[in-house]
Specification:
With about 375 residues, this protein is of the alpha/beta class. It has two domains: about 170 residues, Rossmann fold (3-Layer(aba) Sandwich); about 190 residues, Dihydrodipicolinate Reductase, domain 2. The protein is built from 13 helices and 18 strands. The longest helix is centred in the last third of the chain and has 18 residues. The chain starts with a strand and ends with a strand.
Amino acid sequence: MNNIIVLGAGMVGSAIAIDMVSKHKVTLTDIDQTTLDNVKQKCNALDILQLNVTNKEMFQATIKKYDLVICAVPGFLGFQTLKTIIEAKKNVIDISFFPENALELQDLAKEKGITAIVDCGVAPGMDNIILGYYNEKMKLTDFECLVGGLPKVKKWPFCYKAPFSPVDVIEEYTRPARYVENGEVITREALTDCEYLDFDALGTLESFNSDGLRSIIYTMPHIPNMKEKTLRYPGHVEYIKVLKESGFFSKEAIDLNGIKVSPLEFTSKVLFNEWKLGETEEELTVMRVTVKGENADGKIEEVVYNLYDEYCPETKTASMSRTTGYTATAAANLFLEGIFNEEGVFPPELVGKHEECFNYFIKYLEERNIFYKKTSRIIES
């Protein structure tokens, strides 16, 4: 039995800890004791520990005794926390989805002789794993990922609920979106190139540009066309654009009766209740991953993986927590079982490229009733 520490007791971090404790000894940490106490009530088998990851000395001393660190802290803390873990010579699975480039820590990880698997969620995460696997099987020309987490009940005006902080969602709406077209990296504003698309279980959704390619821009530069788009219910984008264009997402403080207030902080506070996902509120995750290229027979083939997953009433676990968290726990168990233990920083596509690893992820998720349904067709003989 391995001794695991999970950093961050939010919706995803707690799902990770509860899944890992079935096989391992797990300590769940967070800066907020009340949050920890609530998770402990759900799963008494967990050990809990109040911990501030920004106190570097204490943090590194705390993680020394553990066999593996799983990092699920908020994005703004992610890069520095990951760096601190690597400096402490601890192997780590990370799903903090920070804006910085994790590959900048490659030399440090190799120097310390550790394995860091990063971005290991649903998207980024499983879409990268699928891409990495098919990149070994085919000469790819196209990759597209369409993904969204949505509430089952649409509530006007936003028809949206977030399983994580509104600040992190707004970051998705404000960070410039990069995609690759004809071998060139193109940068556009987020929320652009809106399209209406049909999905079997849901009907029509709208997609828009978001900055989701992340590591594959650097690890898969030979693929000429790559794009990631976020999915929402129709109408959502228009309301977000109104807020954005009106300055509600600005970080620049304004004077309000002698008090300096950032519009972004104010907006996040207002939206927190509007977007907050209730603990037992039903929501879903939808994703469509498409790869296209020349297969081993010299034919142009298109392969599509569709995911549709809902809130699990049995375990009272949100779909986004399940699909994100269980990909991370699959990576953790994959590492602990010695199936993947190369040294350095590894985005999921560099793990999924190995057939044994790809199959492990698919099987692990299926055991938890998360199914990626594959279809394929030959476009040209």
